[in-house]
Design goal:
351 residues, alpha+beta, six-stranded mixed sheet, 9 helices
Length: 351
């Protein structure tokens, strides 16, 4: 059996930390995909990347074909215009609350490396009545990289350059972590932890461990990979909204808490038999778990897994996350440990 750990193993914490330092906005996941490929290579028989950048690690077996998936991309920004004074304008990559952006530092993938910028807005002292308290759009903001003029800015960046939040990972407690892009690098850490556990279990399953691209743009990577692999079972690993903070309503938003266990979502996107299997395992070997009700297709890779080919038996395992898609997301490493334990035992029992 694989009981939950007190905290994530040191080696896996280190891998998570390194991945959080990497920029991987949707469509520009190459650095993280390469890191994932090198990390899982010792645990599988082969690793390949498809034409769009999805990374597929394969542990060969004669049993049922099982696919586990987490996405490598994060929300970010793309430079769309540079004015004569050297200020940059941008479009958002993925779902971002624009009102949170003024004053945020970002890292731009520049021509010769990282370029630091700050997202600017007119100070509140100078705002007229119509501007105070209004909901912002990207066109209300700009990026300042201290360029002298347009020519100076163009020597460092270009239209089409991508950027991410510049926040650094922070350990808040023994188990609580704060960082950008925990959505879904904590899922990738779970996937890597599962890969490592393949050495310790006996299974005849034909296993695919996949890091997908462009989930934040509609689970595009999952659509491609699921159609190519066509597994009997596909399980997505992602974050879900924690609701244990002010302004959230359990009646409306559900009751999901950090550190209280892995989340097993229920709904039409997930196979009832798989969900029953997950909950039975969790109860049998005492893995803390929570249940989330999702009455529509989820906003995860599971959405595309389910409808690939003639249909795939689909599961979703989630890690609670506060402040999703902001510069400072928060998760509990204990919840990630519980996810690894649950999926490892699931594979063992499938054999």
């Amino acid at each position: 059996m694989y009981p939950n750990l007190n905290s994530m193993d040191v080696w896996l914490k280190d891998i998570l930390h390194k991945s959080l330092l990497m920029a991987s906005p949707s469509g520009s996941e190459e650095q993280l995909i390469e890191f994932f490929a090198k990390t899982v290579m010792p645990y599988v028989d082969e690793v390949n990347c498809d034409v769009n950048g999805n990374c597929i690690a394969h542990k060969k077996g004669n049993g049922p074909k099982i696919m586990f998936m987490a996405h490598a991309d994060e929300v970010g920004f793309m430079i769309s215009y540079i004015d004569d004074r050297g200020f940059l304008y941008f479009n958002q990559i993925g779902g971002i609350d624009t009102n949170l952006l003024p004053g945020q530092r970002i890292y731009i993938q520049g021509k010769q490396g990282l370029v630091t910028g700050i997202i600017g807005r007119k100070p509140i002292h100078l705002q007229g009545e119509p501007d105070c308290g209004k909901n912002l759009s990207p066109e209300d903001l700009w990026i300042d990289i201290a360029a002298k003029d347009k020519e100076d800015a163009l020597s460092k960046v270009q239209v089409g350059s991508v950027a991410t939040y510049a926040t650094m990972p922070t350990i808040l407690t023994d188990t609580f972590v704060l960082s950008k892009s925990l959505d879904d690098k904590i899922g990738l850490a779970v996937l890597i932890g599962l890969a490592n556990n393949l050495q310790t279990i006996s299974t005849d399953c034909d296993i695919y461990l996949v890091a997908t691209v462009q989930e934040e743009l509609g689970a595009r990577g999952a659509q491609m990979v699921s159609a190519a692999i066509l597994p009997e079972i596909g399980v997505a690993i992602d974050v879900t909204h924690a609701t244990d903070y002010p302004t959230m309503s359990p009646a409306k938003d559900g009751d999901i808490r950090l550190g209280k266990g892995v989340v097993i979502p229920m709904g039409p996107n997930m196979n009832k038999g798989l969900n029953q299997k997950f909950t039975n395992i969790a109860e049998t070997i005492k893995i803390p778990y929570q249940v989330e009700a999702i009455a529509s297709p989820t906003g995860t890779d599971a959405r595309m897994i389910q409808v690939a080919g003639k249909g795939i038996k689909t599961g979703l395992i989630s890690i609670p996350c506060r402040y999703m898609h902001t510069p400072n997301e928060m998760v509990s490493l204990e919840d990630a440990d519980n996810a690894i334990a649950l999926l490892t035992e699931f594979l063992q029992e499938l054999s």
